[in-house]
Design a protein that fits this description.
Elements: E1 4-6, E2 17-18, E3 24-26, E4 30-32, H1 37-50, E5 54-56, E6 72-74, E7 82-86, E8 91-95, H2 100-109, E9 112-113, H3 125-130, E10 147-153, E11 159-162, H4 168-174, E12 183-190, E13 192-193, E14 196-205, H5 206-211, H6 213-219, E15 222-227, E16 233-242, H7 251-275, H8 280-287, E17 294-298, H9 300-304, E18 312-320, H10 324-337, E19 346-351, E20 366-374, H11 380-392, E21 396-397, H12 407-413, H13 417-427, H14 436-442
Parallel strand pairs: 1-3, 4-6, 5-6
Antiparallel strand pairs: 2-3, 7-8, 8-12, 9-13, 10-11, 10-12, 14-16, 14-17, 15-16, 15-19, 18-20, 18-21, 19-20
């Protein structure tokens, strides 16, 4: 996928925006940072009157051009913080520009937690949910599936309040709206009393983990694993609720595993692999044995998430859960017979079916396969070959990660695709929130 550039602007226009991975850039006509919902509504109205398109951008952790625009780029960072906590209802209402890291830390101080989350927490809440960010879970689903209500500024500047009872058809779609229906200003999320998770990380052979995948899935609340290409080695992670006591990683051992090995050394070996690709298989064999088994118990966000300082480009597909082992074996066979050199592990996670219109787990129990390449390394050949495998199994691409699918394909794998596009036609007939990415994935 080539770098996406969203137009040009005049001499006094804002500098180009680029995403975290550096594979997407855009040059907006202007950038606004509204300090209130009213200011955001006015910015949308003015842009529409001027014939400019509007996109909100979070921290740039999407690998697609979902937020790219040559019009008005909205930065919602000033719309941040917790509005209210309703302990009786088990909910928290949070401004859309709040970074997940800040939300999780604030919730923990309040003795509360999300039920499940992804493996990083650098994104804004609205950016993460709008693209379908997820972790892994047998019974608990994505962050978007934990939404109980939301506010949305529409193309005419109105503010819609949405829930299962109020504007339910918008609520069903806007929880994973890809920025196509409007700009989310606030989210009400389900929370629960803070609990402990025990994480068990353990190396395991590829053949064993694939043969026992369903068993591991059934026995653990949260199961995931990483396969290191060019090897038969995997690293598994099982997270389950614990009565305690807390037993977090020690400061030295945690630094060695999470910073020295997973970031510092990993950065070095990837840089070497990019410079000398022939070294990658040997490096992979060493790297896949570097992480040892460990068990620790801590509050949820400290178990679910990890620091990710090595930059990369990623593709991820959601498959029917029963297809994931076959697809992964096909991926391994493809890598083994090719001349590809892959320095990043392949990640496998799961999610239960949900009822969100364009969630990657909409209506079906799902498993995810994510492939990565180190930033600056050509990734097209690998991703193209992987995508052919994933689409042969009816895969659905993650909305925020590299893929080449279009509306024709997506309408075939999402039974409610037409429901979403019809709602978009009603809420944004003039495509105020449109861009090239949405034109490709949703149609004109």
């Amino acid at each position: 996928m080539a770098t996406a550039t969203a137009g040009t602007a005049g001499k006094n226009s804002p500098a180009a925006w680029h995403n975290w991975a550096g594979n997407v850039t855009a040059t907006p006509a202007r950038v606004v940072t509204p300090a209130s919902v009213g200011e955001l509504q006015e910015a949308v109205r003015r842009a529409a009157e001027s014939g400019l398109r509007v996109k909100a951008v979070g921290t740039g952790h999407s690998f697609t051009a979902a937020a790219a625009t040559d019009g008005v780029l909205v930065r919602p960072q000033a719309l941040a913080g917790i509005r209210s906590v309703d302990r009786a209802a088990g909910t928290v209402t949070v401004e859309a520009g709040t970074v997940l890291k800040d939300l999780n830390r604030t919730l923990a101080r309040e003795g509360l937690s999300l039920t499940n989350m992804g493996d990083i927490m650098e994104q804004t809440v609205s950016g993460a949910t709008s693209t379908g960010t997820h972790g892994t879970g047998r019974d608990s689903a994505s962050i978007a599936a934990q939404i109980r209500g939301l506010e949305l500024v529409t193309a005419d500047g109105r503010l819609l309040t949405c829930s299962e009872k109020e504007n339910p058809e918008v609520f069903a779609a806007a929880r994973v709206g890809i920025g196509a229906l409007g700009i989310v200003t606030a989210l009400t999320l389900a929370v629960e009393p803070l609990f402990l998770l025990t994480a068990r990380e353990e190396p395991m052979g590829f053949d064993r983990v694939t043969a026992e995948f369903e068993e591991h899935f059934a026995e653990n609340e949260h199961f995931e694993f990483y396969w290191f290409p060019h090897t038969g080695n995997c690293n598994t992670k099982r997270n389950n609720r614990s009565q305690g006591p807390a037993a977090p990683t020690g400061p030295v051992s945690g630094w060695i595993e999470d910073e020295l090995l997973s970031n510092g050394l990993f950065q070095a070996v990837n840089s070497l692999g990019r410079a000398v690709p022939a070294t990658i298989p040997s490096i992979a064999r060493v790297a896949s044995r570097a992480l040892s088994a460990r068990t620790y118990t801590d509050i949820p966000y400290k178990v679910f998430t990890s620091p990710r300082r090595v930059r990369f480009v990623e593709m991820e597909y959601a498959l029917p859960r029963e297809a994931v082992v076959d697809a992964l074996r096909e991926l391994r066979a493809m890598v083994d017979r090719s001349r590809l050199r892959i320095s990043f592990p392949v990640e496998v996670r799961t999610a239960p079916a949900d009822d969100i219109t364009l969630s990657t787990a909409s209506g079906r129990d799902s498993a995810y396969i994510a492939v990565h390449m180190y930033k600056g390394t050509p990734y097209q050949a690998y991703f193209t070959a992987a995508e052919q495998i994933f689409t042969a199994h009816g895969g659905r691409p993650h909305w925020g990660k590299v893929h080449t699918r279009d509306a024709e394909y997506l309408s075939a794998v999402y039974p409610r695709f037409g429901e979403f596009t019809a709602l978009r036609d009603r809420l944004d007939p003039d495509r105020v929130f449109g861009n090239d990415y949405l034109r490709r994935v949703l149609g004109a």
